[in-house]
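<instruction>
Derive structure tokens from the sequence
<data>
Labelled lines for chain and fold
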Amino acid sequence: MAATAMTTVKASRYRWMICSLLLFSTTINYMDRNVIGFLKDYFCSAEGFGWTNLQFSYLTSIFTLFYAGFTLVAGAIIDKIGTKLGLALSLTVWSIAGMASAFMGKSLPAHMFARSVFGAGEAGNFPASIKTVAEWFPKKERALATGIFNSGSNVGAMICALFIPWCLLMWPSGKEFMGLFHGWQMAFILTGLVGFLWLIWWQISYNNPKAMLQKGKVNQAEYDYIHSDADEAALAAAAEGDNVKKVSWFKLLTYRQTWSFVVGKFMTDGIWWFLLFWLPTYVRTQFCEGLTPEATAARVMATNFIVFGVAIVGSVFGGSIPMFFMNKGWQVYKARMTAMLIIAVCPLVLLSTQYFGNISIFGGSAIILATAVICIGAAAHQAWSANLFTTVSDMFPKKSVGSVTGIGAAAGGLGGVLVQLLAGTLTDRFADNLQTAYMLMFAVCAFAYLIAWVVMKALVPKFKPITDL
């Protein structure tokens, strides 16, 4: 009877508390990151800094470049020191650097320096988060957990859509906070401070499953469920420790599975960053002509809030699609890649953005139709991202997840640099006809995912987990 009672004990659900911690860290990560996207129009205006679009693209590109470079280091460090300390250090660096931007004046080189340090700090968030999901969730739930925490990237952008324009309206020139800080400076300062509140919660609530089992936060049923994957059961004990032998980047780069993830990130990360940094300007230049500053700010806030809000649905729903196939008995990789193919088709609708955004054809409905199309593309990206990240923990042992994620994130950052420079070049080149510039950019966005999927599938045609690390 005792044995029967033991088998019917309901598993605790502390892993979802961990997921909520990652959700909030990613929200803060993207809130801090997206501040400059909503400050772009001020930075590039005569009453602001007077920068050109290309100069602004230098700022976003240097951030992306340092973010990309340091993800390599961050992933390896987190694999060595563990997620608790690694993510805490990462957040501390990016929060301090973010607030420092408020004190850089109008100097582009000074802002580029601050944004470089900021990018280096932010590099640790996703390697740490993906490693945490691998440690805390069985494969069946990883895409869903990733989708949930990754939706923080949308929540952060939504907060910025409302908060940053408000800062600019609240503290304009002549009405600075305490007579010292303009609205753009307060935007950096206030968003940077939020991270330290999360840091307290993280230090109190996080540790690995084995430690939480010993503390009574996790019961044995949940612990066994977390380690229920047959191909990982033998590695569970080693994965819990911090003394796992380090795997070199060069060794990881010899696997086609690594390159599959690298290609997926390189081809598609820049698309999301284009939306983050350039969507506010797109709305203002295409749909706000003749409006007052207040009406322009309201329209920019509303459209961006809607786009990133809808993207949350894509992030969570996209993470659940493979579960549908797995519950039908499909093998993990087949379910994952089928879901990603379905998702990769959706961004093709972005080819119609400029048609539906044509005011001469659709009048006042143009902004609604164009926003709806962009919503589909944004939701598809987040669904894609949730599944792409999970391919790492599907195929690699937990001890190398942070390093592989870091390599892929570096490739994604490099792709992001190229997309930012392309956007800046095109918008300056077609300054008198921005519709053409955005048409070309949306075409790049539309095809990126299908091309990435084809290359990934060619590199890894069938599921082949790494077992020799």
